[in-house]
Every structure is written in structure tokens, then in C-alpha cells.
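1st attempt posting a full record on here, be nice pls
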Amino acid sequence: MKEVFKTFFEGTCLNAYELFGMHKEGDGIRFTVYAPNAYAVYLVGDFNNWNNQRMEKCDRRGIYSTVVYNAKEYDNYKYRIETSEHVFLDKADPYAVFSEVRP
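the predicted structure (as C-alpha cells):
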């Protein structure tokens, strides 16, 4: 995984979709997002009643990740970005392979 980080930041990564987004990992699902200017990142979705689940910052340049054990493949979710001004923005996953239809 660290090799993908390296090539991602070099601008030569051809398989970032394998790192970012939602992926099955063991008994859970890993969510990973790049948010370089965030103060904090939370995961919200069907699996946690849209309540903040703080994601771990796993790279000093702004990669956040967490594993959710009760998430299902087609659950709705978003990343809740907290800015340095402590404003919260809900963002769709740019690497999502599924999204709901607009109302």
C-alpha cells in the first residue's frame, strides 16, 4: 500500500482506485480518502446512522482511512470533512463505484 502512496504523490500512479474508496478487507470494509487540507475526516453512512466515525490519518500528506465491520457493499456513505475553520462539508467518494440516483 505504501508503494501506491509513493506513486500517487509522484503523479505516476495508475491504480489509485485500488487504494482509495471502499474495499472489502477481511470481515470489514476499508474506506480511504485523500483530504490534504482537512483538519479531520469522518465517515458517515447507513452503517452508523449518519453519525461521525473519525477516520485515522495514515499519511502526513492527508490520506485518511478506517475499517467498518458492519458496512455492506451498497450502503450509502459520504466523507464528512472538517476544515481548519471547523466547518463540516459532506463529500461524495470520488472513487465510488456506486452512487444513489438524485431525488
